[in-house]
Amino acid sequence: MTSFYGRFRHFLDIIDPRTLFVSESRLKEAVQLLEDYKHGTLPPGVTNKELWGAQKIKQAIIHPDTNETIFMPFRMSGYIPFGTPIVVGLLLPNQTLASTVFWQWLNQSHNACVNYANRNATKPSPTSKFIQGYLGAVISAVSIAVGLNVLVQRANKFTPATRLLIQRFVPFPAVASANICNVVLMRHTELEEGIDVLDNNRNVVGSSRIAAKHALLETALTRVVLPMPILVLPPIIMSILEKTSLLRSRPRMILPVQSLVCLAAFGLALPLAISLFPQMSEIETSRLEPEIAMATTSKTVVYNKGL
Questions:
Q1: Looking at the structure, do residues 37 and 181 belong to the same domain, yes or no?
Q2: What is the secondary structure of 70-133 as a DSSP string?
Q3: How many CA atoms lie within 13 A of 120 on its CB side?
Q4: I need a labelling partner for 3 at 20 to 30 A (CA). Which of 75, 92, 168, 240 fits?
Q5: How far apart (Å, rounded) are the C-alpha atoms in residues 107 and 140?
Q6: What is the Cα–Cα distance from 306 to 64, expressed in whole angstroms?
Q7: pLDDT per residue over 77-101, tens digit each?
Q8: Where are its TM segments located (predicted)?
Q9: Total structural domains in the chain?
Q10: What is the C-alpha to C-alpha distance for residues 110 and 305, in angstroms, rounded to an integer?
């Protein structure tokens, strides 16, 4: 987990859509197997492969702070299958004002729920903060997207073809900026109250607002990187594919092909983005509040950055 490649391989397990179909009984078996391993009471014959399989299931489904099951559509393993139809909608050509508002609203609604479900949950977060973050993200995304679309429509110096191409890239700045608002507003409580930091033995040292700032900054950066391949590559690829004789003669295939292109881009972008930083990030105690540094002999502590 200290290397990008190691985190990339780890998060490929976390986002594996097959974990969405794990039954409740199989989840309980996996959790129990890991508990037996922790307490040195493993039944004979259990292999390392079975232990890693159990770890994969638990990490994909159970929140690390609350130990509660994350609702299926809002797990990282559900981000691609549930998010791809929204991405396809965002990138549809010839968007009307109503369709732009609808797809931006749906995208930020999904993002808000994913951010909340995968937040650092060492401190309780009131429902009012969720509503505040949700409204802020939706309003910012819709405002930016509609504003950019209006500017493009009024840019008379562009040809209709150029205008259509530019419009296809409008979702990226709208989504990227709204994602930052979404993360900050959805997790604003962490900035006010701090998040738990743990020593080498995983004991809670204290609550740090500085660590919370680092956690939100790292998560916000992943949310800017994430939509880059998803919302930039498909318009480029589709503008090339739509000129081929295959799609010119079969216009009904454009939407299915665009869906496949978006799915591939999403599948590449998600593990790359969330692998930028480890979920359990490390920070030197000297960079934290004085009371945190005085409360432990450890030179570094860790915190759950959230996803």
A1: no
A2: PPGGGSGGGHHHHHHHHHHHHT-SS--HHHHHHHHHHHHHHHHHHHHHTS--SS---HHHHHHH
A3: 33
A4: 75
A5: 12
A6: 9
A7: 898 889 888 888 877 777 788 888 8
A8: 82-106, 131-152, 164-185, 224-241, 253-277
A9: 2
A10: 20
Which two structure tokens, joined as six digits, stand for 191?
């900035």
Give tens-digit pLDDT for 175-227.
787 778 777 777 777 888 888 888 887 888 888 899 999 988 888 888 888 88
Range of the domain at 56: 4-62
- Which of 190, 188, 151, 194 has the alpha carbon at shortest distance from 173? 151
Which residue in 273, 268, 272, 300 sits closest to 286, CA to CA?
300
Residues 99 and 234 grouped into a single domain: yes
Amino acid at 187: R
52/259 Cα distance (integer angstroms)? 33
Report the C-alpha gap between 121 and 209 in whole angstroms: 14
The rounded radius of gyration (Å) of the Cα atoms in the chain is 22
* Predicted confidence (pLDDT) per residue in 288-301, tens digit: 888 888 888 888 88
Token pair listed for 268: 């590449």
Structural domain contains residue 69:
no
Cα 273 to Cα 74, 82, 170, 267, distances in angstroms: 17, 18, 21, 11
Same domain for 55 and 178? Answer: no
